[in-house]
Amino acid sequence: MFNLLFPTYCISCGRPGNYLCEICQKKLKNSLPECYICRRISNRYKTHEKCNKSGINYAFIGWQYDIIPKKILSQYKYRYAYKLSEILSTLLLKRLHDTNFITILSKQSIIVPIPIHKSHKNMRGFNQSSLIASQLSKKLDFKFDEDILIRKSDSSHQSQATLEERVKLKDVFELNKEVKNKDIILIDDVISTGTTINRAAQKLKGNSINAIALFRGRPRYQ
Ligand SMILES: [Zn+2]
Ligand SMILES: [Zn+2]
What we know:
Bound molecules: zinc ion
Number of domains: 1
Helix content: 25-40%
Strand order of the largest sheet: 1-7-6-2-3
Number of strands: 7
Order of helices and strands: HHEHHEHEEHEEHE
Largest sheet: 5 strands, parallel
Oligomer: single chain
Radius of gyration: 18 Å
């Protein structure tokens, strides 16, 4: 009945039936294992010792950020956010198994989403990384905690911030509770330069940190 009232269409190609149809799912391009800092190939997505300044030991990327992922993230709306997160977290879990990355992750890990990104200025009132992180934690049976890191400032104020204020905002994350000697997995939707996850990781010093992101643009050499 619900489906008759609100038919479901693929947000990428418009085919009826699923929020992301199987054809479009298959068009997602797997990322190659790389060091997320220098972007050279690295076994099992390990950060090279010499590249590792912010303490993220492994940073896994699901897929290349190209046409379909851009559509997915720009179409992420409240009405189907939950369903879409379910599809994406299922696909992500499969990638973690297929690549064997899963074996790197401690079963005691705490999954921590990156608090909402300022470039996602929106009134949607939800954080898509948090939805993905929460569903992934259920599938993996890992702890989930979205209160460890908070964003210091309300993103809606940032567009009016002066340059000086924006410089201060560089330190965007704050540790909301003391966490030490834990296995942390940071979750983000898209990694661009890596600055955001680096800043988040710096707040979590004293823990063993890995990161998982859905998408990232392909490195130049490919
Ligand atoms: Zn489709
Ligand atoms: Zn490197």
